[in-house]
Amino acid sequence: MVDVGAPAAPIRCQDVVKNYKEMQKTKPRYTFEYGTEALLNVFTLHDFAMFHVLEEEYGTEKAVNLYAKIWKKRTYLEWPGLLKEVGLKEGDTVTMEDYIKIMEIYFETFGNPIYLNEKTDDRVTFRVTDCPYTTQILWNMFSPEENLDYNNKIQVQCNTAIFDTMLEITELDKEWTFGFPSQLCRSGQYCEFTYVRKKMD
User: Which has the closest alpha carbon to 82: 52, 56, 109?
Assistant: First the structure.
């Protein structure tokens, strides 16, 4: 028999993890793994749909520019939380050592394995070896041709918007330039993110 009506003690923890734990008591299938995959899936589909609606409404060029602006805005919104993860607050000086930790947190919390491939006084390079947004969701929903077409349009502009914004917020843009020479979704290998120190006159 299906229960109808409000429960005696409605769940409202105002916290997604606490809500999930409460629901697990009667619905054990809502495991940590289930929730993580569900959140990734809905985020990926929302992001994919958003770009395509922008493209249908405004054409590819304007859609790409608007999409990059959305990621720039999101970067500003999530920055205070990233600072908190490394023990900093807004207004604190962010060094390249801090920035390296932020990069690792930024990717790892989405299930994207990242490693520091190169670190010198003048160059810092990261490689990301998997991106479930692409490899788990999109590659299983669309053809290789459709995926390549999508990523050819958005990947460089999107990621450049994110990491140029991070450099701008921290004022590390005065010393470092961001580059994105390799994209897993286009090459099938890895994403590579480079920071090269500017030559000062």
Answer: 109
Q: Which amino acid is at 26?
A: T
Instruction: Quote the Cα angle for 154-158-161, to 5°.
Output: 150
pLDDT along the chain (201 residues), means of 10: 78 94 94 94 95 98 97 97 97 97 96 97 98 95 94 96 98 98 94 94 65
Segments making up each domain of the chain, as ranges: 18-197
Question: With contact defined as beta carbons under 8 Å apart, do 197 and 117 qualify?
Answer: no
Chain segment 69-86, per-residue pLDDT in tens: 999 999 999 999 999 999
Pairing of strands 123-128, 176-182: unpaired
Q: Quick one: 128 exposed, middle or buried, by C-beta within 10 A (0-12, 13-18, 19+)?
A: buried
Classified by CATH at the fold level, domain 18-197 comes out as Muramoyl-pentapeptide Carboxypeptidase; domain 2 (3.30.1380)
Q: How much is the pTM? A: 0.91
Give whole-number Cα distances, 139 to 151, 158, 170, in Å: 11, 19, 35
